[in-house]
Amino acid sequence: MAPALCHDAAMGSFEISRSTSVAADPALVHGLVNDFHEWQSWSPWEGVDPAMERTYSGADSGVGAHYAWAGNRKAGEGSMEIVGSSPERIDVRLSFLKPWRATNDVAFEIAPSDGGTVVTWRMSGEQRGLMAVIGKVVSMDRLVGKDFEKGLARLAAVAEA
Q: Which CATH architecture has domain 2-160?
């Protein structure tokens, strides 16, 4: 997995990006990302809190699908909504409520490649308040980049099984 540049500007903006190759059809990979019910099989944050409460609403998958969670201190609380979906890209609005408030834009780019698919997972947003201060010392890339790598490895394992 190749880390992309992470930009932590003075304003607190950031972008994190990781990519991997998956030996599976792009439509299969798309289905695993486009349906929040499937995320339990590959998301790097599943298992952080075995008692985490999950709520699914809106569409079953694709645009309008909504997922909310509430868990222990490490899992936090927040929600995601798919706001764009095409065979090449899935856009998600990610909103954290706890341990801090933040709204970030997430995109999964899905591209056919020889023998499978290249998946790129991106997240961008603005760090505010305490997170802006922390971001000056520890970049968002350092905070969540390894999670993206773990999630993409799990996504590949599920898609290739």
A: 2-Layer Sandwich (3.30)
